[in-house]
């Protein structure tokens, strides 16, 4: 079998590594904008090209007789890559444009949730006009402001975090109107978690829940990033969740997949990512993504006991109910090493040297290889993952690995440590009252 992976980050390295473990021994190909050395080492061949260049990706897939494609990032999905591949007769384990809209158009996604009575939708409205928007911001009093389109995780601002007061919220929202519609919604208070599922249009196979860390600095300070690291506990639950929380989140995702089919006439095929805030009223949806999370893919894929290629084929063909999707009941801690100054003023083109990382798994992200050496680009560079029987043990493995990377790098030591996890548990106790 010939399988093509589109994308060149840490998430796609994890996807490629999981495919490479398949008993089916597939030949792997990749399209990525820069040469990720981890992916390149697992591939027969790769094309260095923008992942959104739909025509070039389809041409490459046809030239390599590709049987199945997995698309890692959201931008090519929004560009209609899955649709174009299917038109060319190639199977895809990622969603077509109409259903991927649930990620790339936040206004559409919120209206879709409301119109279809999907539980967990915060109070929101979508605006194209400043006066009505200001009145709604006043009415809610405490808000999150979101541009409707894709912003790489950097467009959302929340009061109490990036927005000091109502005046700042109105100013920020007004500035966004030039680029399109703006979503204003209630500021949800609680703890965030990620629930991902393999989806074939009808059935969902859920993965263990994961918690990501968006803030750049220790103690959850500093600007938002793509995600500095993440962890999961053995089994499907995080330490601050109740079984009922996860059940409600699963129901929300199942209802979403069914409603997407009703509304668009297209089946959602691929990984669906639910980002939830667990509030005093149960889980609320922060957003859906039409793909794996980065870093969350690196937590769950190393735990997948089933053959990933079987899962991919089943998602593409609508036969997921015939696959026994299982994850080993282990904890993982994933930590990113990022360029110093990331995300606001990252250093670039600095060499990264990987020393003895012990039992950790290493995934390359936004780096490039030149003359056998690896360099940073300004985005998240290298992720390390510890897998063990407890979060504590997994954290030690990941942390030790980070200390054996050299370069002009920064990372968060606190991710996965007992103190931070206890803070999450205490916070949730307080929120639940
Ligand atoms: P997003 O790009 O939608 O993932 O949002 C980025 C971050 O903003 C999330 O990880 C949350 O921490 C925060 N956020 C988004 N929406 C809300 C909301 N309604 N209430 C509180 N925080 C939010
Ligand atoms: N880790 C957040 C995301 O992938 O969107």
Tag the structure with descriptive keywords:
binds glycine, alpha+beta, five-stranded parallel sheet, D-amino Acid Aminotransferase, Chain A, domain 1, 433 residues, 3 domains, Rossmann fold, 33% helix
Offer a concise description of the structure.
The protein has 433 residues and is of the alpha+beta class.
Topology of this protein?
Layout: E1 2-6, H1 10-20, E2 27-32, H2 37-42, E3 45-48, H3 54-63, E4 68-71, H4 74-78, H5 81-87, E5 91-92, H6 97-104, H7 106-115, E6 124-127, H8 130-140, E7 143-147, E8 157-158, H9 166-176, E9 182-186, E10 191-200, E11 204-206, E12 211-212, E13 215-217, E14 221-224, E15 229-232, H10 243-264, E16 269-279, E17 282-289, H11 296-300, H12 308-317, E18 331-339, E19 351-354, E20 361-364, E21 367-370, E22 373-376, E23 382-388, H13 391-402, E24 405-406, E25 409-410, H14 418-432
Parallel strand pairs: 1-2, 1-4, 2-3, 4-5
Antiparallel strand pairs: 6-9, 7-8, 7-9, 10-11, 10-16, 12-15, 13-14, 15-18, 16-17, 18-23, 18-25, 19-22, 19-24, 20-23, 21-22
Bound molecules: adenosine monophosphate and glycine (GLY).
């Amino acid at each position: 079998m010939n399988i093509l992976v589109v994308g060149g980050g840490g998430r796609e390295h994890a996807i490629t590594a999981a495919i490479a473990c398949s008993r089916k021994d597939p030949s792997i190909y990749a399209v990525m904008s820069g040469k990720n050395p981890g992916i390149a080492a697992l591939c027969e061949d790769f094309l260095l090209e923008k992942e959104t260049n739909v025509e070039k990706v389809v041409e490459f897939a046809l030239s390599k007789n590709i049987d199945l494609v997995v698309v890692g990032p959201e931008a090519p999905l929004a560009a209609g890559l899955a649709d174009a591949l299917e038109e060319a007769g190639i199977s895809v384990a990622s969603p077509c444009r109409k259903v991927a809209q649930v990620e790339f158009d936040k206004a559409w996604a919120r209206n879709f949730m409301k119109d279809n009575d999907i539980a967990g939708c915060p109070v929101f409205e979508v605006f194209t006009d400043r006066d009505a928007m200001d009145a709604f911001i006043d009415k809610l009093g405490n808000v999150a402001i979101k541009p409707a389109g894709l912003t790489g995780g950097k467009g959302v601002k929340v009061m109490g975090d990036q927005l000091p007061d109502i005046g700042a919220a109105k100013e920020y929202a007004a500035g966004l109107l030039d680029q399109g519609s703006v979503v204003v919604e209630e500021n949800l208070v609680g703890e965030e978690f990620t629930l991902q599922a393999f989806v074939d249009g009808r059935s969902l196979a859920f993965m263990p829940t994961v918690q990501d860390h968006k803030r750049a600095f220790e103690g959850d300070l500093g600007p938002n990033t793509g995600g500095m690291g993440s962890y999961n506990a053995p089994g499907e639950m995080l330490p601050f969740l109740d079984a009922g929380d996860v059940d409600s989140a699963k129901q929300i995702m199942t209802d979403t997949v069914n409603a997407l089919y009703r509304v668009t006439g297209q089946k959602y095929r691929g990984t669906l990512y639910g980002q939830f805030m667990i509030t005093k009223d149960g889980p609320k949806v922060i957003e859906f993504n039409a793909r794996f999370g980065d870093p969350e893919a690196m937590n769950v894929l190393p735990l997948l006991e089933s053959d990933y290629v079987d899962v991919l084929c089943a998602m593409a063909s609508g036969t997921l109910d015939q696959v026994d999707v299982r994850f080993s009941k282990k904890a993982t801690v994933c930590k990113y090493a990022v360029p110093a100054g990331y995300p606001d003023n990252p250093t670039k083109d600095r060499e990264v040297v990987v020393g003895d990382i012990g039992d950790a798994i290493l995934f390359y992200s936004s780096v490039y290889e030149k003359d056998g050496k690896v360099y940073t680009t300004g985005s998240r560079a290298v992720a390390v993952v510890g897998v063990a029987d407890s979060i504590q043990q997994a954290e030690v493995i990941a942390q030790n690995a980070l200390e054996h990377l050299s370069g002009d790098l920064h990372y968060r030591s606190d991710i996965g440590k007992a103190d931070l996890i206890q803070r999450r548990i205490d916070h949730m106790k307080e929120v639940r009252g």
